[in-house]
C-alpha cells in the first residue's frame, strides 16, 4: 500500500469508530457490502469516491478532509502521480537567486495549504494547523434544478450535509421508514426509505413531473437506504407540493405531502 492509501484507510477507520458504526451498519445503508467495506477500510483495494461520500453521510461528518485524502490516493491508484515528470533543476547564477527563492516560496505556500486541508476538521492529527477548509476544496453538487431531473441524488452529491433537509419523516410500527428530502443546493426533491419489505413500492409525485419510484426486489434492498431519482423543483412548484406514498405488498397504502405532512 502506498502512504496515501494507508492514510486514507486509517482516516476512514477513524471516522467509522468515532461515529460508533459497525461494518454491518454502512453495509445496510449504502450500496456497498460488508466485505467491500472491510477491504476499503483495510486499504487493500481502491476506494470509490462514492464510498467515501457515503461513509461521511452515514457518520454525519463533512467529507472535505477524506475527499482530499482520496484525491491523493486516487492519483497513486490511477498512475497519475507516477506519470508526472519530476522537475529538472537548472544551474543558475547568483543573479537568479531572487527568482528561485520566489518559486520555492510559492511551492511552500501550496504545500502548507494542502496540509491545512488534510489536518483541519474533527479528525485532524495536529492542532498546529487550524482554520476552515478553503472554499475551493468544498465539493459542490453535480446538477441544479432541471439538470437534476431523474438523476441519483447520491451520484450528484445532492445529499451532503448542509445541502439537504428532511421535510417530513414517517416511521411505521413495523419499522418501515420514509422521508421526503429537499436538496436545497440542487433545487430538487426525492424520497428516501429504509427497512421496507419485499414487494414494497414507494412513489414520489409532483404535479407536472414524471413519477419516481422505489421497488424492493431483493433481501439486500430490505435493509438498505433506498432513494428515488430526483424531481427538479421548477416554478411555480415548491418542496411542499411533493407527495410520497408507500404501496406495500399487503395493499395498505399510506401517503404524506411536504406541505401538510399527510394526505
* Number of helices, counting only DSSP H or I runs of 4 residues or more: 8
The tally of strands reads 9
Order of helices and strands: HHHHHHHEEEEEHEEEE
Describe the main β-sheet briefly. Answer: 5 strands, antiparallel
Beta content comes to 15-25%
Q: Radius of gyration over alpha carbons?
A: 23 Å
Structure described in brief:
This protein is an alpha+beta fold and 263 residues long. Helices cover 33% and strands 17% of the residues. α1 packs parallel to α4 and α1 packs antiparallel against α5.
Descriptive terms for the model:
263 residues, alpha+beta, four-stranded antiparallel β-sheet, 9 strands, 17% strand, globular
Give an overview of the whole structure.
By secondary structure, the chain is α+β, with helices and mostly antiparallel strands. Helix content is 33%, strand content 17%. The protein is built from eight helices and nine strands. It has helices spanning 3-18, 24-29, 34-42, 49-59, 64-78, 80-83, 97-119, 219-222, and strands at residues 164-171, 177-183, 188-194, 201-205, 212-215, 226-227, 231-232, 243-247, 254-257. Strands 1, 2, 3, 6 and 7 form a five-stranded antiparallel sheet that branches. A four-stranded antiparallel sheet has the order 5-4-8-9, with no helix packed on it. Strand 1 (164-171) and strand 2 (177-183) form a beta hairpin. Helix 1 runs parallel beside helix 4 and helix 1 runs antiparallel to helix 5 (64-78). The longest helix has 23 residues, at 97-119. It is globular, with a radius of gyration of 23 Å. The chain starts with a helix and ends in a 6-residue tail after the last strand.
Amino acid at each position: 500500500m502506498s502512504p496515501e492509501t494507508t492514510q486514507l484507510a486509517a482516516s476512514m477507520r477513524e471516522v467509522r469508530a468515532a461515529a460508533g458504526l459497525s461494518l454491518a451498519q454502512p453495509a445496510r445503508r449504502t450500496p456497498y457490502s460488508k466485505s467491500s467495506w472491510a477491504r476499503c477500510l483495510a486499504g487493500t483495494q481502491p476506494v470509490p469516491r462514492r464510498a467515501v461520500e457515503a461513509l461521511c453521510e452515514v457518520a454525519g461528518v463533512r467529507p472535505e478532509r477524506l475527499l482530499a485524502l482520496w484525491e491523493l490516493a486516487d492519483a497513486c491508484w490511477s498512475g497519475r502521480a507516477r506519470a508526472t515528470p519530476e522537475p529538472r533543476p537548472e544551474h543558475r547564477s547568483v543573479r537568479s537567486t531572487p527568482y528561485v527563492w520566489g518559486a520555492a516560496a510559492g511551492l511552500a505556500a501550496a504545500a502548507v495549504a494542502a496540509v491545512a486541508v488534510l489536518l483541519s476538521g474533527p479528525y485532524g492529527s495536529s492542532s498546529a494547523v487550524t482554520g476552515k477548509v478553503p472554499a475551493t476544496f468544498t465539493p459542490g453538487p453535480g446538477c441544479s434544478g432541471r439538470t437534476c431531473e431523474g438523476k441519483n441524488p447520491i451520484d450528484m452529491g445532492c445529499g451532503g450535509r448542509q445541502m439537504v433537509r428532511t421535510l417530513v419523516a414517517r416511521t411505521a410500527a413495523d419499522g418501515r421508514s420514509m422521508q421526503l428530502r429537499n436538496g436545497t443546493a440542487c433545487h430538487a426533491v426525492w424520497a428516501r426509505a429504509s427497512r421496507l419489505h419485499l414487494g414494497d413500492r414507494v412513489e414520489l409525485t409532483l404535479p407536472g413531473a414524471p413519477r419516481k419510484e422505489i421497488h424492493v426486489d431483493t433481501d439486500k434492498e430490505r435493509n438498505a437506504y433506498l432513494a428515488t431519482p430526483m424531481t427538479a423543483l421548477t416554478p411555480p412548484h415548491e418542496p411542499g407540493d411533493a407527495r410520497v406514498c408507500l404501496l406495500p405488498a399487503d395493499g395498505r397504502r399510506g401517503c404524506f405531502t411536504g406541505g401538510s405532512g399527510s394526505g
